[in-house]
Amino acid sequence: TITHSKGLIIRRRHSRSLFRSCLSIFYILPFILINLVIFIVATSKPKIEYDVSDTRDYRSVDISIRIRSLLPIRETSVTMESQPLEMEKEKGVYTATLTSNGTLQIYVKGGNGMSARLSDTIQALDDMAPTIQEDYVMENGILTITAEDSQSGINFDAVYATDEEEKTVKPSHINKESGEITFPMDTQTLVVFVAD
Question: How many CA atoms lie within 13 A of 4 on its CB side?
């Protein structure tokens, strides 16, 4: 406190608290906010959202990839079994159709150098042929076999056989639930073809 010659008392406390308030509002608060924004931008990682659709024919499956990032994306890489996968981009979503099983790897690098990776194994496609069980029955000129396919099932409309003379022989009976197929066998050899 200072006393002036005319008897006025001047208080410095008020001016000091005003200075401190101004200092915190105009210097410290902006300093904290700017550094917070810099920290968020510098450490922001891109996020990968990935979806595999259900397959209808077990021969192909569609995938879609969406990348979310605060900053522009510097680099994107999508590979299937270490081979680059061609992607189509529409409205921020990358799409592709896969025709084989394998390991899918997605790599994204943001504008700040931060990166994200995603790896997944695709096993939705049927890349195994149907099997015919070894215990077949040959009785009274009729061959009975059992075929199975654990993924896509058997295309019973495409089942046929060929005889020694390369003539096509159609099945005489098909049980779709058990996979049992019956052929008339008038020759010594019959080669059966089963498709999925």
Answer: 6
